[in-house]
Structures are given as C-alpha cells and as structure tokens.
Design goal:
- Keywords: Disulfide bond, Glycoprotein, Membrane, Signal, Transmembrane, Transmembrane helix.
- The chain is an alpha+beta fold.
- It contains 14 helices and 32 strands.
- Strands 20, 21, 24, 27, 30, 31 and 32 form a seven-stranded mixed sheet that branches. Strands 1, 4, 8, 9, 12 and 13 form a six-stranded mixed sheet that branches. Strands 6-3-10-5-7 form a five-stranded antiparallel sheet, with no helix packed on it.
- A hairpin with a 2-residue loop joins strand 16 (about 340-350) and strand 17.
- The protein is globular, with a radius of gyration of 31 Å.
- The structure holds 2-acetamido-2-deoxy-beta-D-glucopyranose (NAG) (9 copies).
- One 2-acetamido-2-deoxy-beta-D-glucopyranose binds near residues 151 and 279.
C-alpha cells in the first residue's frame, strides 16, 4: 500500500516537472483552458488528466513521436480529431512559431488533445477517459420513479452565448396550473458544459410577467422572483427534496417560476451556443407537508469601501418566531444569499439564549457556486427560537469593481487616459480635501487585456498634489443629466435629452459660478454626448461635446478661461445610444449592463452653488421636486406621501367602483383623477414607477388606466358622462371610506 502510494506521488511529481518544462515547447503551452471546467486551465496539455500524469492523450502521443518538439507536422495535425489543427488550437494557425517567440494568437486557445465540444457525439471515443475530468454522476432520487410523478422540461432554445465573461440568462415560465402538485425534484440538462456554470430555480409571485424568451438578467431574475426552490452547480447531478415535503405548485402554490443559468465564458468564445434546461418532477399525490420558504437576514447594509472585513449580524428574534410560528416546523434545507462582496455567511439557531446549531455555514461563500444545506433529518424550529444571520462582506484594498467604483463614490476628481501626462486643476481653484472636504476617494484603473495574457502584473498608481495654501476658490462638482433611461433593444440611435432648467439654477445658484472643466458619463452603449448652456432662451455654447464617446477613453473638457454660469441659465444634456448589440431594454442604473447619462461639471466657487445634482426624470426636474416646490402644478414630494384626502378618496373609489367594470360612477371618478396635476402625463408615469413595488398601487393603476381608455374613447359630447356634479359622489365616497375603515378596524 505504502509502496503504491509512493509511486503515485512519485509519478505525479515527475509528471508535474515534465509538463512544466514541456509547456514552453509548444505555443501557449501554459494557456490551455479546461474544456469542461469554465475558468480553469489544463496545464498538463499532453496528458489525460489536467494535472498531468502518466497517461498521454492523443496530442501527447503525437508530441512524443515528434521528439517533444513543435514541428510543422505536429502543428498541421489534428490530433484530437475535432476539425481544428493543433496549430489552430494553440494559436499558431500558420505554423510559424518557434520556442521563445510570442505566438501569433493568444486568444481563444483550445485544447489540442481533447476533442471539442467534449460531449459532442463525434467525440465519444474520449468519453471514458475524460470521465474523471468531466464526470457526470447519475442522479439518484427514488421519488422520481414513484407512480404519479410527472415531469416538465424547461429547456432554453439553442442560444448564442455572448463573448462576455459573465452572463446571467433567465426565463420566467408557467408551472402546471391544472391541479395541486408538489414539486419534489429537479434534474439539470446541461448542454454546453464548457460554459454553463450554475442554475437556480426561483419561485415567483403569481402575476409576474412571463419571459418565455431567454433574456439577459441580473443576479435576481426579477424582483418578484426571489425564493430559491432549487439550485444546480457544476458537479451536482440533481436536487431531491426531502421526502416528507414538497413545494406546492399549481392551483394552490407557485404558478410561475424563473430559471436562471450562469454562463461563464472567460475565453470570450463567440461561437458557443447552449440549450441547457432543467427537468422538474412533481406529483399530485401530495406529500404529508407543504414546504415553505422563510427569508431571514438584513434589510440594511452599509459596507464602507476599502475594508477587508465588514460583518453584519441580523436576527429573527424570539418575539417574531413566537408570533408567527404556531407549532414546531422542520427545516429541510437552507441557502445563503449575498452578492459578490460576500465572503462568509452563517445562519444559526438559538433557543432560550443558547446556541443550538448552524443552519448554514459557508466560510468561502461564492455567489457563483451556490450551496444548498440539506437535512435528511430535519432541524426542528420552535416558536420562540431565534435565528441569527451573520455575513462577512469583503472589500480588500484592491477590488475588481464596476464602472462606478461604489455608488457612493461618483464625483470624478481627475482622469487619466493613455497619452495624457497629468491633470492640472485650473489655477484659481482646487478640490477641497481634508477636514472640510473629501475624506475618502476611490482610484479606479482599467486594465485592458484583450490577448488574455495570464502572466502580466501591474502596480500602477497616481500621485496626488495638494496644498494647505488654499486657492481663492473651492471647486465643486455639479452632476447634470437623466435619472430615467429606457433604451429599446436593437436600435441604432436612441437619444435622451434632459434639462437642468432655469427654475433650478435660479434656486440653487446664488451668484455667478465658473466652469473649469466637465466630463461626460455614459456606459458602453453611449455613442455621443453633449452638454449645452442656454440663457434667456438662446444657446450660448457647448460645455462638452463628444461625437465618438468611448467609456474607455475618458475625456475631460478643460477651460483655461472658465465658462460663466448664471442663475437662470439652463443646462441641456443630450445622450445618444446604440443598442444594436442588445436584446433587452436597457434602463438607467449603476451596473455595466445598465446605462447612464450624466455630466460632471467642475465649477468654482463652491459656495455659490449649493446642490450637487441637477438631473431630470424624463422632463421632470428633480431639483424642483426635492425642494418641495411645484412643477406644472404638481407638488410631487408632498403628493408621494399619499396623505392628501382627496386622492385617498379617489383611490378607494377606483377600487370600489371600477373593480369589475367601468361603471358610470367609476368613469366620473376617473375623470376626476385626471384633474390631479400629479397624475397627468409624465407625473403619472413617475408615480407609477415610484410605487411599482406596491401591489395595491399596481392594481389601482391597472384598473384606472383601463377605465381611462374608455373615458378617452367615449366622446363626452354624447352627454353620458357629462354630469360633473361630483358632490353626491363625494358623499358616497366618504360613506364608503367610512365603511371600509369600519371593516378594517
Ligand atoms: C417524463 O415523463 C414521461 C411520461 O411519463 C416519461 O416517458 C419520461 O421518461 C419522463 N422523463 C424523465 C426525464 O423522467
Ligand atoms: C423517507 O426516506 C427515509 C429514508 O431516506 C425512509 O426511512 C422514510 O420512510 C421515507 N419517508 C417517507 C414518508 O417516504
Ligand atoms: C476570439 O474571440 C473573440 C471574441 O469572441 C473574437 O472577436 C475573435 O474573432 C476570436 N478570434 C479567433 C482567432 O477566433
Ligand atoms: C425555554 O425555557 C422555558 C423555561 O425553561 C420553557 O418553558 C420553554 O419551553 C423553553 N423554550 C423552548 C423553545 O424550548
Ligand atoms: C493663473 O494662470 C494664468 C496663466 O495661465 C496667470 O495669468 C494667472 O495669473 C494665474 N492666476 C493665479 C491666481 O495664479
Ligand atoms: C441654497 O440656496 C438657496 C438660495 O440662496 C437657499 O434658499 C437654500 O437654503 C440653500 N440651500 C442649502 C442647502 O444651503
Ligand atoms: C435674461 O433677460 C432678462 C431681460 O432681458 C435680463 O434681465 C436677465 O438678466 C437675463 N438673464 C441673464 C442670465 O442674462
Ligand atoms: C436576440 O433575439 C433574437 C430574436 O429573438 C435572436 O435571434 C438572437 O439570437 C438574440 N440575440 C442574443 C444575443 O441573444
Ligand atoms: C369622437 O367624435 C368625433 C366627432 O364626432 C369623431 O370624429 C371621433 O371619431 C369620435 N371618437 C371616438 C373615439 O369615438
């Protein structure tokens, strides 16, 4: 035994040494990806195991027969028989590489010794030996072969995988609704094992919108599909729910679900496709108990930047479990959920002050490797138990970040781009830092590595010059632009215009200010942006203008002779996007897949201008709204408190009179609502957008807008709805309101 172990170690050690020295005998020898483990490498290129070993693969055998040299013959041969020559696979398509040179191509390297895609039928002869690398365990779940168990396959149509490192792709679909069922198991159908990294099945609210076509989505497929029913990750063969229970679907359970796949394509292949899916097993022979999902954790997080460990603890305390747990429940399984900063999470159970056990515990949390904690012997949870959730979120000194390093670090103080030799602030002004200014800053570098070199390192930096001999004026940054974007997919030019209007500059500019510099800011769909200054109705000049905007080539517009900006001036921002590359609507937001339309204007003296944001939501200037003033007759800020009695009556009246059909009373109410300035045009859209999370308001707007269509299509001249004497109605409303309140109380 000891002898054989010794031999294994000996061989492994030898193999490692071998392939490391031979790697340099072939082009890109240290850069060959694993064909079925996204993101990992196959350093032992000539071997049947990624780590090397004594068995050689087809390429390894050919390599040996050429004397372990890269020859024309070896280069032109297709050792693994997948239709690409070894040279093409290793980035030397013209067979011109020799040892020590840079290969012609170092992107899209594929394995010369593994027929790819590895699971294609034409590659079957390698399946046996490839099993240990790309193994497929059989799914064992006795329940799925019980009588009465039905199945449903949700399979993505053959979809092109974007040449992007990370893509989340989702469908939202109907579950069977003809009966009462328990969902008892799921089994993955993974098509492109090169790319598919994990899958999650979420339960949705009943009336969430269906999304039958696979759509690029975020980590959560939809805010209304949050409850995790099942997870799959590389190496799993399927998910078998505890045999006492099932997730109720159908008539009395989830009616819709979302399926999310994570495609991981670090080599940015552009020809991959995938049609993976998931088989759902369910039965109408209901199990003893329905499974439910309880969400615990924190509603508030505030993670400072640049800190290695920030820990949040939150409780579902005894007072709560006492109140909502009627009788003992059993915990069958549990999942942690954080996003990319999360490093560890633990959920613990306490009873009467003492810790009983962990419900989950992950010390190496990884969003992309979801883990389900399953309990064959379920954990008992009693009324009065406490559930404690602890998260550790990590932001090391240097973190891979998004385009905006942090939503709370937005204001650009300085930019550098290739070709610049430094940034010299206008000599009348400076950015105040220290006691009375910025105390923290974020420095972002963009590393551009299209050749996907894996050996490069960097320790670039920035020298900041500052003085306590303060300049005449403090510099400030004013952000202008749009708070709302809705860019339809597949359109070459979508233009958004937004204003910081005279009403705003009048209010917040006390005295003349000088613009020293300005930056445009959009994300990757942005093609052109211009910020213009208007006074008394006529255009004065451009503050910025870029007809070839490029996020990765930031441009600062500097004015040695500063631009004067007066109270009453208007600043107009125009952004144009090209969405031909997108299949889904792009909205305003922070993440790279969202868009922005901001301008950052550096001005001085800071004390003459006392806000930092003058943006608009469609045409509604947020500055007016935030100041509590009215715009086109609407006091939006006040309105959004929904404390106005007239609105509340009308709201209740819509729910009361318009429920089944648009009765005559209903139409009168609708017309009455149309006279509220905050429910007209873009204000109505804003209120709708603002209240999207509230089911009552969604219902209200649905009913209201439905009946509004009837009002608008009926010619009022017919006289039917002309009775504008609403006082009787009001009395009725007050009556109903009173009845409703009586019932509620
Ligand atoms: C799904 O159900 C059908 C019909 O009962 C059965 O023939 C099929 O084998 C099942 N599929 C799977 C993957 O279990
Ligand atoms: C559940 O499975 C266990 C074994 O895993 C078995 O002993 C038990 O009888 C099963 N219970 C039901 C309700 O099927
Ligand atoms: C490699 O992939 C990139 C990104 O998908 C693509 O643009 C490029 O044409 C590919 N190169 C080769 C040589 O296939
Ligand atoms: C906690 O302790 C009290 C007093 O000893 C006991 O009555 C109660 O049942 C305990 N609670 C639980 C959930 O065990
Ligand atoms: C700023 O620089 C200009 C020349 O670029 C110079 O004329 C002026 O005096 C300087 N002003 C201050 C306050 O240093
Ligand atoms: C901004 O300036 C206006 C006009 O001078 C003033 O009414 C307002 O109070 C100021 N706001 C702040 C936050 O200083
Ligand atoms: C705009 O015009 C009015 C009337 O001519 C003038 O009083 C005002 O100063 C002008 N505004 C600016 C910012 O020049
Ligand atoms: C976008 O949708 C169209 C039609 O639905 C489809 O043909 C195309 O492949 C999709 N493109 C991407 C990148 O998903
Ligand atoms: C309303 O009446 C006008 C004039 O009588 C007519 O042209 C129009 O089509 C009518 N509209 C609807 C929606 O019935």
């Amino acid at each position: 035994m000891e002898v054989s172990l010794f031999w294994i170690f000996f061989c492994l050690a030898r193999a490692v040494l071998c392939f490391e020295s031979y790697q340099s005998n072939i082009p890109n020898g240290n850069n060959v990806p694993h064909p079925c483990k996204p993101g990992s490498m196959w350093p032992g290129v000539g071997h049947k195991l990624a780590v090397g070993g004594k068995n050689r693969n087809y390429f390894g055998k050919d390599f040996e027969s050429t004397g372990k040299m890269w020859t024309q013959t070896l280069c032109r041969k297709d050792s693994d028989g997948d239709g690409k020559t070894n040279g093409e696979e290793l980035g030397d398509p013209n067979c011109i590489w020799s040892q020590g040179q840079l290969p012609e191509i170092s992107k899209n390297i594929t394995h010369p010794g593994v027929c790819e895609p590895w699971n294609h039928p034409r590659c079957q002869q390698q399946w046996k030996w490839l099993e240990s690398e790309c193994n497929k365990k059989e799914f064992v779940c006795d329940a799925i072969s019980e009588t009465g168990v039905q199945n449903m396959t949700v399979q993505f149509p053959e979809s092109k995988i974007p040449p992007r490192e990370t893509t989340y792709i989702c469908v939202i679909f109907d579950l069977p609704q003809d009966n009462d069922y328990h969902l008892i198991a799921t089994k993955p159908l993974i098509d492109n094992t090169n790319i598919v990294h994990h899958a999650v099945l979420f339960g949705c609210e009943d009336d969430v919108e269906l999304e039958p076509i696979p759509t690029v989505c975020d980590m959560v497929p939809n805010p209304r599909c949050r409850e995790i029913l099942s997870t799959w990750t590389v190496g799993f063969s399927g998910d078998c729910v505890h045999n006492h229970t099932g997730f109720r679907i159908g008539i009395n359970g989830y009616k819709r679900a979302a399926l999310q796949f994570h495609w991981n394509n670090p080599a940015l292949h552009s020809t991959y496709t995938d049609n993976s899916g998931l088989i759902l097993y369910f039965t109408d022979d209901l199990r003893t108990h329905d499974a439910g999902i309880l969400t615990v954790g924190a509603n508030y997080l505030n993670i400072p930047p640049g800190v290695e460990r920030t820990t949040y603890v939150s409780y579902c305390p005894a007072q709560c479990t006492d109140m909502f747990i009627n009788d003992k429940v059993y915990i069958a399984s549990a999942n942690n959920h954080m996003h990319y900063l999360g490093v560890s999470q633990r959920i613990e159970q306490y009873r009467n002050g003492s810790r009983l056990q962990d419900i989950t515990s992950e010390t190496m949390y990884n969003y992309d490797n979801p883990k389900t904690f399953r309990y064959d012997k379920p954990i008992e949870l009693f009324p009065g138990d406490t559930i404690k959730t602890t998260y550790v979120e990590l932001e090391p000194i240097q973190t891979v970040c998004d385009m905006v390093p942090n939503p709370r670090c937005r204001e650009m103080l300085s930019t550098w781009t290739v070709g610049f030799n430094g940034d010299c602030v206008h000599n009348h002004t400076g950015f105040r830092i220290g006691i009375n200014g910025y105390k923290r800053a974020a420095l972002q570098f963009h590393w551009n590595n299209p050749a996907l070199h894996s050996t490069y390192t960097d320790n670039s930096g920035l020298i900041l010059y500052f003085t306590d001999d303060l300049r005449t004026h403090d510099a400030g940054i004013l952000t202008v632009g749009a708070n709302y974007l809705n860019i339809p997919p597949g359109v070459e030019r979508t233009t958004y215009v937004s204003y910081c209007p005279a009403q705003c500059t009048d209010m917040f500019i006390n005295d003349k200010v000088y613009i020293a510099s300005a930056n445009n800011h959009m994300h990757y769909l942005g093609v052109s942006q211009r910020i213009e200054q208007y006074r008394n109705g006529s255009r004065l000049q451009d503050i910025t203008s870029e007809t070839m905007y490029n996020y990765d080539n930031p441009k600062t517009f500097r004015y040695d002779k500063p631009i004067e900006l007066f109270p009453g001036d208007t600043i107009k921002t125009t952004c144009t996007y090209n969405s031909l590359s997108k299949n889904t609507t792009t909205y305003f937001g922070d993440s790279t897949t969202d868009e922005m339309c901001f301008g950052f204007i550096t001005y001085f003296p800071k004390q003459n201008l006392n806000i930092s944001l003058c943006t608009s939501w469609k045409s509604i200037p947020m500055c007016v709204i935030r100041s509590g003033q009215s715009y086109n007759g609407c006091y939006l800020q006040e309105f959004l408190k929904f404390s106005e009695a007239r609105f509340m009556w009308l709201f209740n009246a819509v729910m009361e009179f318009c429920d089944k059909q648009c009765s005559t009373q209903c139409l009168e109410v609708v017309e009455e609502i149309e006279t509220l300035p905050c429910l007209i045009g873009e204000f109505r859209e804003y209120v709708k957008h603002f209240m999207e999370g509230s089911p009552q308001f969604r219902e209200f707007f649905k009913i209201f807008e439905n009946c509004l269509k009837i009002v608008e299509s009926n010619n009022l001249s017919t006289g039917v709805y002309q009775n504008n004497d609403v006082s009787v109605l009001y009395i009725l409303l007050i009556f109903f309101h009173a009845v409703l309140c009586f019932i509620c109380n």
